[in-house]
Amino acid sequence: MKENADTGPDRKYMIDAYPLGTLQDGQFKRGGDDLAIPPKKVLPATKEEVGAIYSNAFEVGKRFCFSQLTRQRDIKVPVHGDRFFNKHIAIVGATGSGKSHTVATILQEAIAAKNGDYTGLNNSHIVIFDIHSEYQSAFPEANVIGVEDLILPYWLLSEEEMEEVFLESGDRNNYNQESLLRTIVTLCKEKDNSGAEKVYFDSPLKYSVQDLVNCLMNLSVETKDADNPLHIITDSDDKSFDSEQAKLESYCSAPLSFAPTQRASKDKIGINKGAYADGSIDKFVRRLASKINNPRLQFIFGEKSTELSLEDVIGQLMGYKAGVNSNITILDLSGIPFEVLSMTVSLITRLLFDYGYYYRRSKNTCDTPLLLVYEEAHKYAPKSGLARYKASLSAIERIAKEGRKYGVSLLIASQRPSEISETIFSQCSNFLAMRLTNPDDQSYVRRLLPDTLGNITEGLPSLGAGEALLIGEATIMPCVVYVTPCDPEPSSSDIPYLDIWKEEWRSISFEEIAKEWKK
Ligand SMILES: Nc1ncnc2c1ncn2[C@@H]1O[C@H](COP(=O)(O)OP(=O)(O)O)[C@@H](O)[C@H]1O
Ligand SMILES: [Mg+2]
Fold first, then answer.
1. How far is the CA of 95 from the centre of ligand 2 (A)?
2. Is CB count within 10 Å lower at the N or C end of the chain?
């Protein structure tokens, strides 16, 4: 309140203030019960005081810094490094708000941070799911895996992942097909791993996918002795088996041609169709065979996938390569066929989680913690329960819920926070909200904040590129920051239209494009 004695009527000012905390002996404390209560003199905080809030926040060794205050760019804003990476992080903002650059800045700082002056890599382990191939330029030393060199063996697929690849979405609830798939895959794994103690459907054990196809093909045309289902007659053979298991095992070896059905008579036995030979699995078997032979899916079903071991696959994903280790592995997903994107993300996510899990179990510690970075996370972890994304969604949700125990954290970036699975979002403890223009997304972010801070989100639509509202457990208090520009930059998806259009007419080799198209 202020009085003006010189002229005219008094002016009264109202200050709408929320107590944030106190600064005592240069140390900022949030909240507290000794806040000033009017009437007391009110002054804006000086730059030194504001500076002191941030410069003394957290012990020196715990500070991790990637931004400054927007209004006072010479004041650095640290976050508590352990709390920041140990709990999941979300970066949200409209396209062009600076999400990718922010991800790059944070990761560049993380791989450069060292607790001594040793040379060589630090012990950070980061995997980026790069959907637009933009990160390679920001991390020239990274281990980049594109569709040409990615190998994800089919024998590592989980039930959900298999269903996503092999079953038509309308058929996914077909219990018959699911259970048949489970039975035969388990059988194939047992057959090829006779030394293994326990074999489950999803044990990471090799088997021949051709065996699976043969067995299913045979079942789809099977005929058998009407009186004895374990007795079959084929062109070349007349066989009786001891068990259903033994019969199925023999069906794995090659496609058979079964005797035609016939009615029993005095001198002939009756021959019936097998249980699956009624046409009900024909579509499924055809689909399976066509997937396995699809040239674009050779990174899953090709020959190389049977040559790699489980440890090779994990090593490849973790940046451990003979002679050229790297802190960052970039999974360039831009060439992955759309229909297997979710399955690919799911399998890799699950393998990395399981790595964390078994590392902890075998060593009783987590000394190689991982950060998994998902760009455009709403694309494969959407809120709506679309069957197509079931696998990737549940793999990422599992990390959101349990990853912390095993040293596996998430960093998700998205332009549509309101479309990301709430399970994932609600597990994030640190947020960078960049410019957001969509009202649904704005109110979504507002809901994350305590009521008293609601009005700080009013500025969200007008933030500049690289500016963000930093909120969460790792910050001393919520504030609007300017993220330090990264160097080198990710390759921007911004195309300088006008510049390019001003150039001379370009000739186009349509042939070359068509060739790429048909690959
Ligand atoms: N910290 C920053 N300072 C200045 N410009 C930035 C900053 N971050 C991003 N930009 C600019 O904003 C544009 C979009 O950034 P980008 O990270 O690609 O956004 P998004 O991933 O959200 O679409 C880029 O052209 C970049 O130059
Ligand atoms: Mg981006």
1. 6
2. C
> Is the beta carbon of 414 within 6 A of some atom in ligand 1?
no
Calculate helix-pair angle for 209-221, 244-251, nearest 10 degrees: 110
Nearest to 105 by CA among 375, 486, 410: 486
Distance between CA atoms of residues 419 and 92, nearest Å? 11
| C-alpha span between 16 and 8 (Å, rounded) | 25
Whether 464 and 94 have beta carbons less than 8 Å apart is answered as no
The ranges assigned to domains in the chain are: 62-151+308-518, 159-287
Angstrom distance (rounded) from CA 231 to CA 227: 9
Superfamily of domain 62-151+308-518: P-loop containing nucleotide triphosphate hydrolases (3.40.50.300)
Kind of pairing between the strands at 428-433 and 88-92: parallel
CA neighbours within 13 Å on the CB side: how many for 205? 20
- The per-residue pLDDT string of the chain (519 residues; one tens digit each, 9 = 90 and over) reads 444 556 678 888 887 777 778 888 878 887 766 666 667 777 888 898 889 899 888 999 999 999 999 999 999 999 999 999 999 999 999 999 999 999 999 999 999 999 989 999 999 999 999 999 999 999 999 999 998 889 999 999 998 898 888 887 665 547 788 889 999 999 999 999 998 989 999 899 999 999 999 999 999 999 999 999 999 989 888 899 999 999 999 999 999 999 999 999 988 899 999 999 988 889 899 999 999 999 889 999 999 999 999 999 999 899 888 778 999 999 999 889 888 898 999 999 999 999 999 999 999 999 999 999 999 888 888 887 666 788 899 999 999 999 999 999 999 999 999 899 888 988 999 999 999 999 999 888 888 766 666 577 788 899 999 999 999 999 998 899 999 999 999 997 678 899 999 999 999 999 999 998 887
Q: Is any atom of ligand 1 closer than 6 Å to the C-beta of 124?
A: no
Answer yes or no: are the C-beta atoms of 144 and 328 closer than 8 Å. no
Q: What does the alpha-carbon distance between residue 129 and residue 75 come to, in Å, rounded to a whole number?
A: 33
Q: Would you say 64 and 84 are in contact if contact means Cβ atoms under 8 Å apart?
A: yes
**pTM of structure:** 0.89
Mutate to test the pocket of ligand 1, among 65, 101, 436 (most ligand atoms within 8 A of CB): 101
CA 84 – CA 227 distance, rounded (Å): 68
Residue closest to 474 by CA, chosen among 409, 422, 419? 409
Question: Rounded to an integer, what distance in angstroms lies between the CA atom of residue 259 and that of residue 394?
Answer: 45
Name the closest ligand to CA 138.
1
Ligand nearest to the CA of 98: 1
Query: Could you give the CA distance from residue 485 to residue 467 in angstroms, rounded to a whole number?
Result: 10
